[in-house]
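Q: I'm writing up a methods section and want to include an example of the input and output format. Could you take the sequence below and give the corresponding predicted structure tokens, formatted cleanly so I can copy it straight into the document?
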Amino acid sequence: MDGLTAWIAHPPTTQGLDHLGTQAPCISLYSRLLPGITNVTDRARYYSLYPWLIWKFDQRFKSASPKDFETFYRRADCLLTLVAERHARCAQEAGALHGAAMIGRLTLLPALDRLEAGEALRLSTYATTEDEPGARYFKNRLGGLGQYYLGTLVDLGLLLGDPRSWIRYTRERGEVIAKSVEEIVPADLFLKTIQEDVVSLRRLDNLAPFCFCHLKEGTKEHKFLADLFFGRLVDEGSDGQQRRHSLALVLSLVDAMAQSGRGTLDIDWVRGTLYGHSLGKGASWNFPPVLAPTAQAWATYVRNDLLSIAAQTVFFSSLSILDQCNRRFDTAEDFGRWLSGRPAIKRLEKAVGGKTFGDALRIARLSAPPQADWDSDRHEFQHAFDCMERFREIDDEAGAAAAIGVAVRTLVLLAARIEPAVPEYDASLLAEEFLKGYPINLQSFRRHASNGWQSLPVPSLIGWLIKDWGIDAHLRIALRKLRNNPQATFRLRPTDQGLAVEDEIPPPVPTNPRLRQAIQILRDLGCIEEKGDPQVPALTPLGKALLAEAVRG
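A: Here is the clean output for your methods example:
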């Protein structure tokens, strides 16, 4: 039998995400805690206006083709953004009430500037599917609906279909919310504008009821969306209840902020409050007892995210050293052993807090600030952000070693919080089977911190982290991704010349837990208002009523 031997090139490389698999448990947790809201569903009124667009098209154009709908939808998507931004300028109010996070906004803002300067504006110029720099508002043929909202609206029972097929509204929910929108918007003028293709300032002003600030309490549209987000619709199930409790927890936090006069809705600040269950510096946040399980689950999410940041920092910092050292290492074990013997790594005992991990842990249990003091410079929450800052400043081996030292100190402080009788994860939110695919998690961290790491000198622990929780973990994750993706996400490769680092080393980053989107949706519903200078958020009467209702169960 004849045979052929040939070399094959490695697959093309892409940047990729979650190179150690540390973020997967975090993502799974916040997905379960805020179902029906994603990292890209930024505004509440898209949940009603998109079903209305589909319903209205079906009512008006019975014999239209999918291509006709695509043209109609893309122009409508552009028009909605232009209306909201124009209304923000006329009302001279904060963009969060109007055009913030609307689809194609960055492209359409200059278009509105030119319109206000007297130039003509055609929707088709920006709704085009052609790749024209500075013109096409969105690459996906179904814009923000296809890219961001469709899957969520399908899951919530508002729409049917997918971007590859005809999208339809559901009778039970999609048509109901569409008809409620129809009652309060100038629908015929909107359709006329799309068909005429020409936009004027006067026309945008007349279409102001389509601005997202017009989602008003007392309308059927508002009631439906409030019922949707707070799990009050029939047969909503456990997802609706969990979403209600997470939104209520945010409302409780805002209420505590208003009463104390401190805090902001900056997401990092909110993450700190969720981790420490306090407003910082030990200031209490007494959330209702019924929300305690949800509050604990959010604290677990943040804890897992801090673990993820620390593991990423050790790995990516070690890659920067490997990339600059001009030495050959055939295995991860060779590199870990070499690096653990470097003077800069040996000097990290002081930064970590002891000669061994066990020594540092015993001292941390006595000296670490309370978990409620998450804004203390000695707290693991602040150390995680210091990890990311130090990584950005790395320019030599000493800088990389310093970042690794802060990351290991973060692990020590996290280990000091372990409560033996309390499971790391709520089994109803994160299944044991799921964790088997992502070996760097809070359960494995507990096992290592309680046993295997105790006697390890700090340099030896760092060598272990680089090998087991760094290079070995990364290669497993990257190989697994390659099974389903023709593009490789390797940040380093085993080659004939030893371990080779890819050109770009990514920074350690936290996950995005949908809280920014949840807060914006609460603003859109009129539950939160921000007044004064500086602006301290507070609950509106509606926000207080929804919080009280959620607490009553």
